[in-house]
Design goal:
InterPro entries: RVT-Znf (IPR026960). It holds the Pfam family zf-RVT. This protein is of the alpha+beta class and 472 residues long. It has helices spanning 2-5, 20-34, 67-72, 83-90, 114-124, 131-134, 141-151, 158-163, 183-189, 191-203, 216-223, 232-258, 264-279, 290-298, 363-380, 394-398, 405-414, 430-437, 454-465; strands at 36-39, 101-104, 312-314, 325-332, 336-344, 350-359, 387-390, 420-423, 445-446, 469-471. Helix 9 crosses helix 10 and helix 18 packs antiparallel against helix 19 (454-465). The longest helix is centred in the middle third of the chain and has 27 residues, at 232-258.
Length: 472
């Protein structure tokens, strides 16, 4: 077993007999080694192979000595070390009372955590531009996944089989002369592929390089040059690229394993049918140009106008982790006013609610009642200043602008000016409004969510999930 994971000196290594799994794990072992550091205590780590001075010393000697042994016989190694290394080594002292500690430089406390390592890898690896193009809801999942593998050069063509050491009579199914099958040859340069790309390239008035391009990513970039990705034509071209590659791959597999002949005309017919169905699912965000419309007409595709919503999408915003949010609303009935108040935490969980009614149509009275009750409850849980949110402009009321004397008196009595006030649209305050007008919720104060009516609980769940709603 050791010969698969270790060299002849007993150190972890990548050998000719290593498994495929070990070959995939090995780069991460190297990453962890480069980002780990030994803090010397007793000095039991390896002098040459371990990182204990900020980097691994070039292991010219493979005797496997420890740091303690190396420091004790440093004169024997001085000629192998640089002045900088000797200076770093001179600062390190052996401490028999302290254990050697291996720390991970990617965390503040030095402890290795899988989550931090994944974050490190994400920050280290540059974002790939084409991922935001192929992973869209209008792109079929199988097409997006296939393009992902194509761009990462991870399709099992003959070239890949050959590189694994498997020898055999390799021959491209798409060519009469039997060229060697690589990804670019199969999907772009093969006889069948050239006919398919040539047909659609002519319709799109697009000249594609058959030779002289770097790889499939470069080919994709040329295909999308001067195209607005969020327009209808841009979306069609991304889908068309995926369908062409996918259909060529399918007929290749059928020819290779079932012996069916490859017919470019049949491939083109399938792609045309698929792109028509695909076009019906699109929701373009950018207007089509006159040139776009001409090309869409050539492809026999129906033009889809940009749908602009009347309003904007909004949702209830959760408060910060150290704050509570109190939503209030008032509804006028025939001879009375009904008010509703909800207090929720940063997770959207309801902690307190109250619903009250007053005779007459004086909004100030019911506002004072529900706000006061909410503030009393907030102080009981050591939250002196919750965020007060409503679609009623309480900020203007607190400044005495455009409000009745009763409202101004209420604002001064509650000292609204010193509170954190938030003005939102009616749809963002919908749960408090539903509470105020709810017919199946009693008039009382409670922390029990089960006493709320079904209509109120429905909106509570929508707010908690962050569901958006169109606001005029």
């Amino acid at each position: 077993m050791n010969h698969k994971y270790k060299d002849k000196d007993g150190n972890l290594a990548l050998t000719s007999r290593s498994s495929q799994l070990w070959k995939r794990i090995w780069p991460h072992i190297q990453q962890l080694r480069d980002n780990s550091l030994w803090v010397v205590g007793k000095g039991q780590m390896k002098f040459w192979e371990d990182n204990w001075i900020g980097h691994i010393i070039n292991p010219l000697d493979k005797s496997g000595i420890t740091v303690r042994e190396g420091l004790e016989s440093l004169d024997s190694w001085k000629h192998l070390l640089s002045e900088e290394q000797l200076h770093d080594i001179s600062l390190i002292k052996i401490d028999d009372d302290a254990p050697d500690r291996l720390i991970f430089k990617g965390t503040c406390d030095g402890k290795f955590k899988t989550g931090h390592y994944i974050s490190y890898l994400r920050a280290r690896n540059a974002k790939i531009w084409w991922t935001n193009i192929i992973w869209k809801k209008h792109i079929p999942a199988k097409i997006g996944a296939f393009l992902w593998r194509v761009f990462l050069n991870a399709i099992p063509v003959d070239e890949k089989v050959y590189l694994r050491g498997i020898l055999g009579p390799f021959k491209c199914c798409c060519c009469l002369d039997g060229g060697f099958e690589t990804i670019t040859h199969l999907l772009v340069n093969g006889v069948a592929a050239k006919k398919v790309w040539g047909f659609f390239g002519k319709m799109l008035n697009r000249r594609l390089p058959s030779n002289g391009f770097g790889d499939m990513v470069h080919h994709f970039k040329v295909w999308l040059s001067d195209v607005k990705i969020h327009s209808q034509l841009g979306m069609v071209m991304v889908g068309l690229y995926g369908f062409i590659c996918w259909e060529i791959w399918k007929v290749r597999c059928k020819s290779k394993f079932e012996g069916d002949p490859i017919k470019p005309a049949g491939v083109i017919a399938k792609i045309k049918a698929q792109i028509k169905t695909f076009n019906c699912t699109l929701q373009p965000q950018t207007e089509s140009t006159k040139w776009d419309l001409i090309i869409l007409q050539k492809l026999c595709l129906r033009h889809i106008p940009v749908m602009r919503p009347r309003g904007k999408w909004v949702s209830w915003t959760k408060p910060p982790a150290d704050k509570l949010k109190m939503n209030i609303s008032v509804k006028e009935a025939k001879d009375s006013c009904v008010g509703g108040c909800l207090i929720r935490n940063h997770e959207g969980e309801i902690l307190f609610w109250c619903r009250h009614i007053t005779k007459g149509k004086e909004i100030a009275t019911i506002l004072e009642k529900i706000i006061t009750e909410g503030l009393i409850w907030s102080k009981s849980v050591a939250c002196k200043n919750p965020i007060l949110e409503s679609h009623l402009n309480l900020e203007e009321v607190s400044r005495g602008e455009g409000a009745s004397p009763a409202m101004i008196y209420m604002a001064r009595k509650l000292d609204l000016e010193s509170m954190v006030l938030s003005l939102v649209g009616p749809k963002q305050n919908r749960t408090a409004t539903e509470l105020a007008k709810s017919l199946d919720t009693p008039f009382l104060s409670s922390s029990n969510q089960s006493k709320l009516g079904d209509s109120v609980r429905k909106w509570l769940n929508q707010d908690k999930l962050g569901t958006q709603i169109l606001q005029d």
